Amino acid sequence: MKNPSFVLRAERQIYLEYDRERRLRLSRIIAPVFAIVLTLVLVAAMVLPKELPGTRHNALLVILSDGLFIFGAYAALRKWVNVATGSILLAALLLMALSVLVNQPFILSDLFTVPAVVLIGLSALIGLPWMILATTFLTSVFVFALSSSPSLATDMANQNNVGSLVAFLIEQWVLAIIVFAVATGYRRILRQISDIRVQYERARQLDELKDQFITTVNHELRNPVMLMQGYIELLRIKGETLPPERRNAMIQSASRAGDNLVQLVKSILDTRRIDQGAKDFEPEVVPVFDAVATSASLVEPGNEHETERELRVHIPEGLALWGEKVRVQQILTNLLSNAVKYSPPGTPVEVVAKVVSPPASGSLWNRSKNTGRRMVQISVRDHGLGIPPDQAPLLFHRFARLPRDLASTTTGNGLGLYLSRELAEAMGGSLWFESTGVEGEGTTFYLEAPLPPDTSIPRAGASELDDGRVHTESMPLRAVKPPQSAQQPQPTTQEAHHG
Amino acid sequence: MKTSANEPRRYTILVVDDNQELLRLITETLILLGDFTVITASNGVEGLTRAVELHPDCAIIDVKMPGLDGYQLVRALRGDPETASMPLVLLTALVQDHYRFAGLLVGADHYLTKPIKPPDLIAAIDEAIAMSQEERISRAQALIDEPFERQS
């Protein structure tokens, strides 16, 4: 089903989900911590010495700043970045204001310890080890700056006070280092758990893809096998009694079924190769005209009913694209084959190539991924039945064929366009179509691929294109007539068949 | 109905399949090996119309078809009093047990998987035609009564 980017998106989603779960779980812990801390600070404020000026106001400021610290941590967990930043800054400002009011760095340092510890602890829980060190550093700078204030020179002359300050700073740093180590280990464990979940999810997805692939392949192979086996059995049982032309018709039908089976197996293997090897892309300069000419020669000629069809080519001289030659030819062969298969005999097929500038707007089915880089656009147009708009979504699905084609004699395994689009996208390009669905107006498929890098072989630049040196010619393109109905029994829905 | 081994069988069989090549093969098989009269239809709606109009002796129905699929066609035929007792054989590439169970549950008499050899197909048609209505009903009842695990 999918290419590596699908798995990578799933991995990212798992990490995001796990991260979100963890943060929400932690945020639920913070709510009671918030309440407990507030209560403790309130109690501490109540028992502060009465001689401290404006104690009640100071207590309220401390409570408010602590509350803002914790709320900021909660906001950080919920990834409300602006709210978290504002809360923590406001809390810091309130504490600074308090320090000015109280003019007591030592009591302040004690009061500051509580929110600092809370913040450090929360940082650890959040899994941001750097925040622990940053918080401790800021705390140290703040306390050191405050203690250096000239108004506190008298207090700082007391060695006991200096000792308390130093002890506080050492305590903070020791605590920070311990918590940093714990937080780092915690984060590593979280990462490992996420890795395990990712691996499990990847294995589960690949298992689903494998089952789906096997189911699809199993189903698609059974029809051609039954055709081959059925005709061979009929020939074995009744061959001698059948007229030669009927025997030959059965042999041809069995052979055709065998060819379709081979083609189907090759397409399926190609599909798996693309799914697995999308990253094994080795681009080169691919001349567009040569690729078109080669692809035209590879269009399946069918059998003795083949006729020639006109292929009109309009390609600037020297135009080249950046891709893999074999893949480009595979895409073009598929597009040309479809153009021939799904258009009336005698109608031409047109191929036009040009350089386009981004971005191209278009219909719903225009999946151009042109992200700003000039691209080579190759269009293949037929004059057939077109594609009904309501059936357009089916076209690029694996094994999907339009109901109109299923009911017709036109053969196909439903993998060509799917493969072509995958190949185009693997080269950094895209594949889409435009069709009105009106019979006779046909369908135009567009293949876009990058221009070669500037350092490679010279490509067609704008000046050359402006000069109008364009390779225009018509070449024969073999086509397949609808099979004649005379030689083999044709069951119809208009009559009953009798033995 | 066949009365003896020596009498020719002239049953009319309706074959419904959206794959023209397979339709051709099955028609050839029924004509050459079964001596049947064959009516064909390339989609479910057409199959339903021809079944109601022509009342064939048996119908061979593909499952995966655009529009009305095989399951819906069987259910429609079983729901119409005029075609309710028609022997119905599903012939499909869907081999998983849950598909088979679903096919039998909607009322098919046989669920055959592709590829199937021509003689086996003829034998399955003979068995479906030979099955009496009482046998069909008791078989359907047994299918409903049995747990799904035993069916698979």
Report on the structure:
The complex is a heterodimer of chains A (499) and B (152). Chain A is α+β, with helices and mostly antiparallel strands. Chain A folds into two domains: 197 residues, no CATH class; 200 residues, Heat Shock Protein 90. Helix content of chain A is 59%, strand content 12%. Chain A is built from 13 helices and eight strands. In chain A, a hairpin with a 7-residue loop joins strand 6 and strand 7. In chain A, helix 1 packs antiparallel against helix 4 and helix 10 packs antiparallel against helix 12. Chain A is elongated, with a radius of gyration of 38 Å. Chain A starts with a helix and ends in a 19-residue tail after the last strand. In chain B, helix 3 links the parallel strand 3 and strand 4. The termini of chain B are far apart. The N terminus of chain B is likely disordered. Chain B is of the alpha/beta class and 152 residues long. Chains A and B meet through helix 7 and helix 8 of A and helix 1, strand 2 and helix 2 of B.
